[in-house]
Amino acid sequence: MNSSNQYREEYDTLGKIMVPKEAYYGSQTQRAVDNFQISGLRFPRSLIRVQGIIKASAALAHMEIGKLSPEMGGAIIAASEEVIEGKWDDQFVIDVYQAGAGTSQNMNANEVIANRASEILGRSQENRVHPNDHVNMSQSTNDTFHAAINIAAAENLVHKLLPAISQLELELDRKAEEFMPILKSGRTHLHDAVPIRLGQEFSGFADTIKSCRQQIERNLDVLYEIGLGGSAIGTKMNTASGYTPKVIKEICNRTKLPFREPSNLFGFTQNTNAAFRTVLSLKELAIHLIKITSDLRLLSSGPRTGLAEITLPSVQPGSTIMPGKVNPAILEMTHMVCCQVIGYETAISTAGIAGQLEINVMMPVIAHTLLQSIDLLSNAIPTLITKCVSGIQANEEICKNWMEASLALVTALSPKLGYDLASQIGKQADEENKPIKQVLLEKGMLTEELEKLLDPRSMV
Prior knowledge:
- The protein is mainly alpha-helical and 460 residues long.
- It has helices at 27-35, 45-64, 70-85, 103-121, 131-135, 141-179, 198-223, 243-255, 265-270, 273-299, 329-353, 363-387, 396-405, 414-417, 419-431, 436-442, 448-453; strands spanning 7-12, 15-20, 183-188, 191-197, 310-311, 393-394.
- A two-stranded antiparallel sheet has the order 1-2. It has a two-stranded antiparallel ribbon with strand order 3-4.
- It holds the Pfam family FumaraseC_C.
- Its EC number is 4.3.1.1.
């Protein structure tokens, strides 16, 4: 390498290129930086960390089967562990929107780890660690980057999103129990319906979140399939004998998760099934969160001119013009996050359509959008819990007033009076703006039996 004040010369199959002198990355990374000035977006820490895990695990496997010397393998592992820890995050510089399959991102990792490992060994020519020959030994972008998506997604689900979802489920269950004594009017089509307990309403929210959690947990199994050792198209070309089980075993040791070889390497290489299934379950969660947060906004609407059956914690002023106004800010934030996740599902599904023959080259955008979806939900849900759900209070008197004014109470009279007569009573109550019980009283129809039927407690 020829050095200057700011740059050094490097050479690859396309010729000479200038690389920042202090950079640990090399020529292929620099070409990607030059070619893809697109969004300014970079892959998240979780993916870079997993790239380090894969490279360290591969080096250990090759040491065990005699393909790397202890000295060189140890240096690669040491450099990879620095990547795992985040020491070299500033050296991962390629835009998310890059050449297909993630080749540039894989080479970014290979070059950083190779140059750092060479530095650890003393940077002599005989100690030089080559990014392709040594760090990428028995690997292809097509198996390592694909595996990195699955590993990073599984780790983020297990350690971040699923605990957050479980906590939301528990908090909604707690609120359901707290609010179970409170009777209120149910609503269908946004109009009066038969009574319900406020706690029952919240128990429905909790069970919905439980169902989403269980679906995500089921989808974890397909994420645990990683096709390391399949090489470029699943044929294991240039993969060292005995490498695959050893590299997967070490990844399991490092992540404490049950990763395994796929039943068919060609199917794994051709399709990013795990990403599709995962993002679909995230979309389902987002849809239900929108429904729940929208319900909470309706139930808390007012405080004087809406339903006002519950009160949300006040977290910040809601208007630059109306003094004292407080809006459901946390619910609005959650709704926006869910809109983004639903949009990301469309991006991943569209990318899935682009799979052709032996590979889907759209893996970079799949990786970014999947991991971003998990991160957004993992951050939004704890905020939703701590700054909103945990502090929700019931307005019991308002619930009672709305319930007693509900025309749907007439439903309880149908078995006794018949549908037609009950309908007439309900219509008269609506036209005269009177409670059902008052209309019955004025008609001389209010018997003890009917009065018991109109008791909301008998309807829930």
